[in-house]
Amino acid sequence: MIGLLYPTFLWLLLPLGLLFWQRKERNLQNIIHGMVLALIIVSLARPVVKEGIQESKIEARDIIIVLDVSYSMRAKDLQPSRYEFAKSTITSLLARYPQDNIMLIAFTSNPLLLSPPTTDHALILTALKSLNPEYILTKGTSLKKLFAKLQKMHSQNKDLILITDGGEDQNSEALAEQLKKAQVHLAILALGTSAGATIENPDGTLVKDKEEHLIISRINPILKPLAEALDGAYVTPSSSPEATATALHEVLEAQDRESQEISKKQHTYSELYQIPLLLALLLFLLVHTRGSKYLLLILALAGIQAEASVWDGFYLNNAYAAYEANDLNRTKEALASIETVSLQSRVAEANTYYRLGDYKKAIARYRSIRSSKADIKQMLFYNTANAYALLKEYDKAKMYYTKALQLGKDSDALYNLKLVALLKQKEDAGLGIAHPKSQNSDAGKSEAQESSDEKKEREEDQPSSGSGTGGESKQEKSDNKEKKRLMMDKNTEPQPLSSKVYELINKGYIRETRPW
After folding, report:
1. Does domain 313-471 have CATH number 1.10.10.10?
2. What is 62-258's CATH topology?
3. To the nearest whole percent, how much of the chain has pLDDT over 90?
4. Other CB atoms closer than 10 Å to residue 390's CB: what's the count?
5. What average pLDDT does the segment 17-36 reach?
6. How far is CA 431 from CA 420, 423, 427, 428, 477, in A?
7. What is the pLDDT of residue 174?
């Protein structure tokens, strides 16, 4: 079946037709020019032939995000409210895990699955935006029922991000025992303050109890001991949702866990945009034969499938240029402007933090990168080991040098492995330390501009940061194209959740006795 990936481009045909209609002079050349522009617009709309759904295996983490949507999340001790702060944090967090398998659950007195596990994060964002808290009437939060639901969902070895202001449960030990049976890796984002805040009704009045006393919603103090009992992380809100998402990201990446292989289903297409583009070229050559050689070059370039958008490529090139000029702050700014992250941009970001000497952030970035290619994984393991070595965490450095060697022979990695083993012995004995050997093949791009003496000094002083600009697989390119289409289509309005969903959320809430 033939379809269009970007049908909104066809609206450009309206001003083109209007312009052609108003022209009094309609000679052959003007008619051909109008046809050329129309065909180019059709090409921009990306006609394709849909071939069906293809299943493939990818490396990804399984993450469960659980959002408290009870009435108390309307409190405004976080601006604009706890609920809106949580939504913005989730949106920012999704951008840091573009290829991972994520499930979204909303809960109050009862949990409700909003999005099943998926790598299509645009669908998660649509479900999140469609959830209207005004239709949620319950004032309760039951962690007990939530954890019971997780036990039935086969959530073993998954990362659980619990975003809540607490609940009416008081027994942290019982909750910890219950959650241990679910076998998840817990991270709690506690929204709110210990002082608490009042809660507004939709009409602007404040929520009161039966005795007409104002209700103050506070952080439930059991959340922190609950996280500690499960060796989990307890995170409080930072200055912004973006900073809070960064803190959660670093907490998850600090866990020494391997990603799992999951199945991913996606639509596959055969591109047809070359056909109208070729017709446009042939028509143009009818009236402009002298420019044929340039147009043929454009046609050849048009057949290349770009991994990222034109602007993303522009920002990535700027980042590389700034990196070569050793302007690392400008490199970070250029990388932050990239909308659709790629393997190259993420490795460049990690290398930048490495060059800045922020080895902990560099390690977090290296470990967050997913690739099925052995040479890329070997480079990531090697660079991670170098960063750990410079932090004098020699045991972790030995582990990652070993992982790099398991993927192939590498004389530098072998040398560094022996060296950090010696450094560990010297450290235990209270002796001096040296530096691991540099891997020249993975050196950062800016080293090409250094003098030979400076370069030699760098190679002796510290491990290589690695350029890491390896390509992505066809599957990864297809994933990025589909995600880019969903993210860029601004005309797509999120569909509101049906009334049945809110009936499920509100079911059974009339018997609540302890709302907060």
Report:
1. no
2. Rossmann fold (3.40.50)
3. 16
4. 18
5. 81
6. 13, 9, 6, 8, 50
7. 86
